[in-house]
Amino acid sequence: MSIEEYKKRNSLLQEKIIAEIEEVKRGKSAKNMLQLQGILEELKNSSVKKNISLYYPRVIVDSWDYSDQLGIELMELAALYEKI
């Protein structure tokens, strides 16, 4: 995967995280607001910097349901980030 592809996928997931934050604000999502904000910040940082250690995969593994679609997509993105 190229850096451009990674950035595109990262951007799409940032939009999903922002939408999920809005759902939390409306009371339609039970996800943790601080976790979502932290994940969004890491996604922003990883789109401009290489070789940073991502913390959010540990948050997802430790506290999210394993079948959560957003979590799955975020974990896939983290795995791709390690390869670029």
Task: Walk me through this protein's architecture.
The protein is globular, with a radius of gyration of 12 Å. It has one domain (3-83). The N and C termini lie close together (7 Å). The protein has helices at 3-25, 33-48, 56-63, 69-83. It contains 4 helices and no strands. The model has no long low-confidence stretch (mean pLDDT 95). The chain is mainly α and 84 residues long.
Radius of gyration: 12 Å
Distance between the termini: 7 Å
Query: How much helix, percentage-wise, in residues?
Result: over 70%
User: How large a portion of the residues is in β-strands, by DSSP E?
Assistant: under 5%
Which geometry do the CA atoms define? globular
In total, the number of strands is 0
The SSE order reads HHHH
Short description:
With 84 residues, the chain is mainly α. The protein is 74% helix and 0% strand. α1 (3-25) packs antiparallel against α2, α1 runs antiparallel to α4 and α3 runs antiparallel to α4.
Write the layout of secondary structure elements.
Elements: H1 3-25, H2 33-48, H3 56-63, H4 69-83
Helix pairs in contact: 1-2, 1-4, 3-4
Features of the shown structure:
84 residues, mainly alpha
